[in-house]
Amino acid sequence: MQVNEYALGFTSLNEEVDAQSLPITGELPAWLSGSLLRTAPTRYEVGERTYTHWFDGLAMLHAFSFEAGAVSYSNRFLHSRNFCEAEAKGRISRSEFMTDPCRTLFGRVMSVFFPKPTENGNVNVTVLGDQIVALTETPMPIRFDTRTLSSLGRLKYDRAVKGQISTAHPHHDGISGYSYVIHMKRRSVYRFFVDEGGHQRVLAELPVKEPSYLHSFGMSENYLILAEFPLRVHPLRLALSGKPFITNYRWHPELGTVFTVVNKKTGKVEARAKAPACFCFHHVNAFEVDGAVHVDLLAYPDPGIIDRLKLDPLRAGNSGDAVAALHRFSIPLGRGEQVSEITGQQLCPTSLELPRFDYGRRAGKPYRVLWGVGQGEGSGWWDTILRLDLTTFPAPVQQWQEAGCYPGEPVFVPRPGGTAEDDGILLSVVLNSNTGTSFLLVLDAVSLSEVARAAVPHHIPFGFHGNHFSNPTNPSQLQ
Ligand code: CO
User: Fold this and answer.
1) What is the pLDDT of residues 326-349, one digit of tens each?
2) How far is the CA of 332 from the centre of ligand 1 (A)?
3) Closest of 344, 351, 305 to residue 325, by C-alpha
4) Is 404 helix (H, G, I), strand (E, B) or coil?
5) What spacing in Å lies between the alpha carbon of 169 and ligand 1's midpoint?
6) Integer CA distances (angstroms), 306 to 124, 249, 445, in order
7) Beta carbons within 10 angstroms of residue 109's beta carbon
8) Residue 280 Cα to ligand 1 middle (Å)
9) How far, in Å, is the centroid of ligand 1 from the Cα of 5?
């Protein structure tokens, strides 16, 4: 058991703030403009009940807007139907990752026939099609006004893009967007789709008997890569068990990790491979060199991380151990339907999470640098920002750390006119347990030395993902 000075990061925030100017220590780069837009689970109690899991909390949007060396902060609850119904009824009315609403037997039967999927976009803020949306793991992105953060309702996909489950990590290659839905039925499918100018088209359908729990997927220059980890569910159990979503999945390590490589243009399956079992939330990047697709991801030995991220143990100070080892899986191309047996190569002895790199210029291509959060020895939670250089093996690691401080995802913002993939800054929302408040940390992306910090008047609960948008009103693509 740890001394839990970071429990505040798992405590609800109810205060909404509108365009509050933040005091800055240091100096923001003069070129920094636009907004860092993030989402996070931020309210954990509804009526008499508390959500079970960190992933369940009601979403709040957080915006840091930069102009002429100044920064202002706004936050606002995402007005999903989950949030609005909780407000109106004073109780949890929709299922989340590990929490179900209270239901009578009749209500339980009804929910099988008329499911009310979650649209609580607490995982990521990103571009889908040509719009900025808040996402969770269902195909129900919520649009919002990037200036006022007021919610604008659901982004509706084309009817052909049918499924109950999706990812909060779509890809974008500067031309098109890519994502998938999982259609759970008697003959279930993973359905990849491409988004061209706000219109979605089905690209490939991969039949599957027992779909895996997936959080993200890979994209190289020419391919989409589905990595199925052996945490699988029988669709009937999901429909009929009456138990919360993730508790229906079962771990089958004997099935291994199965990679399927799909052509981005034709939708054709170009390669398959099988590796020993692992579990993963986050792909980092993928690229094609020497007749193979190299897929980098953060691998856990098993899905134990899911239970470690329940709210009660986290609040009690049990170690989250929410860091995983960076592995590279190299899938040979040109072998048709033949399944290649492969193993991953661990690139670095230090484990990390919430990986970021120069996505705008390096997505799908060979890359050199990535950043993430780490958990130092003796800490129960993420307390460092890491930088890995992949040009040498094992990758050397640099880090930022400060006593009592717990950083979130380090978002890379390239310096305009720069060409190197680490020429820029990192933006990270940090909880300072010494003051009981959070701050926005600005680091030099090469040296990890502090450039500036901006103090927020209250704490910001720990969240997952967001992005910096140079021009949030006209987001053509991610940086
Ligand atoms: Co994620």
Assistant:
1) 999 999 999 988 999 999 999 999
2) 27
3) 351
4) coil
5) 7
6) 18, 11, 30
7) 13
8) 10
9) 24
197 Rama class: left (phi>0) / alpha (psi -120 to 50) / beta? left
For the segment 29-88, what is each residue's pLDDT rounded down to a tens digit? Answer: 999 999 999 999 999 999 999 999 999 999 999 999 999 999 999 999 999 999 999 999
**Residue 411 identity:** V
pTM surpassing 0.85? yes
Answer whether 82's CB lies under 8 Å from 58's CB: yes
How far, in Å, is the centroid of ligand 1 from the Cα of 193? 19
Residues contacting 213, CB < 8 A, separation 6+: 229, 231, 232, 233, 246, 249, 303
* H-type alpha helices, 75-127: 81-89, 105-113
CA atoms within 13 A on the CB side of 236: 3
CA of 317 to the centre of ligand 1 (A): 22
- 176 CA distance to ligand 1 centroid (A)? 21
| Spacing, Cα 408 to ligand 1 middle (Å) | 12
- How far is the centre of ligand 1, averaged over its atoms, from the C-alpha of 465 (Å)? 6
In the reported structure, the alpha carbon of residue 335 is separated from the centroid of ligand 1 by a whole-number distance in angstroms of 32
Tokens representing residue 34 in the block:
């636009």
Q: Provide the token pair at 220.
A: 């190289």
Kindly give the pairing relationship between strand 339-341 and strand 269-275.
parallel
- Report helix, strand or coil for 235: helix
Query: What number of helices (H) and strands (E) belong to the chain?
Result: 6, 37
